[in-house]
Amino acid sequence: MENSQAILVKPQQFEIEECPIPEPKADEILMKVEYVGMCGSDIHGFEFGPYKKPKPGQKVGLGHEVAGEVVKIGSEVTKFKVGDKVLIEPGVPDDSCEYCRSGHYNVCPDVDFLATAPNFKGAYTQYMTHPESWTYHIPEGMTTLEAALVEPAAVGMHAAILGEARLGSHIVILGCGTIGLMTMQACLSLGATDITMVDMMQKKLDFAKKLGARQVINTQDIKPSNGERCTPDDIAAYLRSEDQFGKHGVDLVFECSGSGFLAQVAVGIVAFAGKVMMVGTQAKPVPVDFGRINREVTIMTTFRYCNNFPQTIEAIASGKFNVKDMVTGIYDYKDIQSAFEEAIDPVKKQDMIKGVIRVGGTEF
Ligand SMILES: [Zn+2]
């Protein structure tokens, strides 16, 4: 077949179906896809169906962390030529609303983002088109595999830059999943060195240590003050103890787990005039005692990224940001079904930090 795409026909069931090679519009490139990352949102979409509901009968594709090679260009394309290795920014904003015009294109309400409403166009396909203006060259020193991970890395970079992570910042990152580890490495690439990672899974903490965390703390090692289970206050008290950060608390806290429990820990450990960056998606409301943080604390939510691809590409290409070692599995496109089954398997998923689908291409 000349082209194909993996369609989620129902939750937990992909089918690879034949489709035509798309024709690039005047301002688009046609890319032969090489690697596509497996994002937490793809894995969630596979398990339960997409967050946003497709229209009846609409085909649902997944995948948005993608890199490959230009094989055709539209008549107005000037930055790229056939044979160039590229990666793409998967959200194309309308470029005309108030948000776009004020420099916040990541919150554009009309963004056309891969693998979600309104189009559900996924990157688990062999050939896809994309606008030239949201496509980037892969520089010397970066493989196509690494390039496919620029997108999740940019989420961490956006959070680290908004949080103003720098040398001298005392940083705690709550949650050692992909986004927590990406945020950690973004902070490292910006010069921060004092980063403490917190999680309840030792394997992930060991991984964080290997990637450059100053220290790692397993919440299961913290003794509850009363009863069998720790409360957010117990964990906050431990982190604020003299031998951790001292009574003054932590300058910069990233909540990267999406857990309401850890969100309360974040509020419990932040210093006066410090910052809490809410990076993980909180599924439920979380009570916040503003009385405890009435000393000029900033709480900020982050969303995807905005103008962060160039920095992230530079950080990875220069070796300051290690995405390569985060790849725990590379799966062939034809095995996409079993790759995602592994990602939702309660035991196997514990060993998966970042899975990548290899569509074409051979480099490692
Ligand atoms: Zn807009």
CATH superfamily of the largest domain: Medium-chain alcohol dehydrogenases, catalytic domain
Instruction: Please give the alpha-carbon distance between the first and last residues.
Output: 26 Å
Ligand catalogue: zinc ion
Number of domains: 2
CATH architecture of the largest domain: Alpha-Beta Complex
Q: What report would you give on this structure?
A:
With 364 residues, the protein is an alpha/beta fold. It is 24% helix and 25% strand. It has helices at residues 40-48, 98-101, 144-147, 150-162, 178-189, 202-210, 232-239, 260-269, 309-317, 336-344, and strands spanning 4-10, 13-18, 28-37, 66-73, 85-88, 91-92, 112-113, 127-131, 135-137, 170-174, 194-199, 215-218, 250-255, 270-278, 298-301, 327-332, 354-358. Strands 3, 4, 5, 8, 9, 16 and 17 form a seven-stranded mixed sheet that branches. The chain has a six-stranded parallel sheet with strand order 12-11-10-13-14-15, with helices on both faces. A two-stranded antiparallel sheet has the order 1-2. Helix 4 crosses helix 5 (178-189) and helix 4 (150-162) crosses helix 9 (309-317). The longest helix has 13 residues, at 150-162. The radius of gyration is 21 Å and the shape is globular.
